[in-house]
Amino acid sequence: MFDGLRSAARESVVRALWDVPRLLRHPVWRSADPGQGNGLGVVLVPGFGAGEASLVPAGSWLRARGYRPASSGVGFTVGCTAELLKRLLHSTEKHAEHTGRPVVLLGQSRGGGLARLAAARRPDLVHGLVMLGSPVLDPLGAHPNVLRIARFLARLASAGIPGLLDDDCMRGPCFEEHVKDLAEPLRVPAISIFSRSDGIVPWQLCQDPYADCVEVHSTHTGMGFDPKVYELLGPRLAAWATGTIRAFTSSPSTTSSSPIVQCG
pTM of the prediction? Predict the structure, then answer.
């Protein structure tokens, strides 16, 4: 019980917002090369119940460095997986057309899982994939409190309220199809960032065998405000923007060029 209370306290949204001043003072935020991104498009996919505001810092950081961030159009990411994926693919296709080349998908938590599904389905639209605390090995392996909310939304959906996660997304053919697709090999470069301090998603579930799995020391809700995350993404995104990393992968990745601890 006490472990659960400590996890809940660590994952408070208010506590995550306390990290904002630290991020804004950090050199990784203040030192910006406006030509770094070379106009590369980035589609931002928020986590379950978080909404687009949760990735506003990421969007600002990217924009200041010459990337072109855009919304995924999935709202609070609480709807049916198939419908959210359809919206994300539409937004990805439009942004790729707008920028004239494939884009990066950057998703947090459930948003990272959706981004992975989109990358596996339409690799022609995706230049690279970033997943932050995303339980791709088991979408239902999150903290019990999160699952209780998801099941409550499913009950509301069965009662006739539209736009919510439904029961078929948590079991049955729809769920099985998407779990199978999450295990598909990736044909784009990808990175999965995880934390052992994550109080929402067990870090083991973020170990995508087709991505570079790299550890930071952050809470789940605080990943978008953690300077270490941006220190990690800076050189990776810059390499993608200049085309120095664009190799397709067809087998599990086990290496990382990041100085931050990687867990295999």
Answer: 0.85
- Backbone torsions φ then ψ of 70, nearest 5 degrees: -145, 155
How much is the CA Rg of the chain, to the nearest whole Å?
17
Q: What is the pLDDT of residues 107-151, one digit of tens each?
A: 999 999 999 999 999 999 999 999 999 999 998 887 767 667 656
Question: Which CATH number belongs to the domain containing residue 168 in this structure?
Answer: 3.40.50.1820
d(CA 249, CA 264): 17
Mean pLDDT, the chain, as a whole number? 84
Residues 122, 158: Cα–Cα separation, whole Å: 31
User: pLDDT at position 76, please?
Assistant: 86
Q: Letter for the amino acid at 46?
A: P
- The token duo for 83 is 């419908």
pLDDT at position 257 is 37
CA-to-CA dists, residue 240 to 198, 244, 263, angstroms: 27, 6, 23
Structural domain contains residue 264: no
DSSP H or E segment with residue 107: strand 103-108
Q: Which domain holds residue 224?
A: 1-248
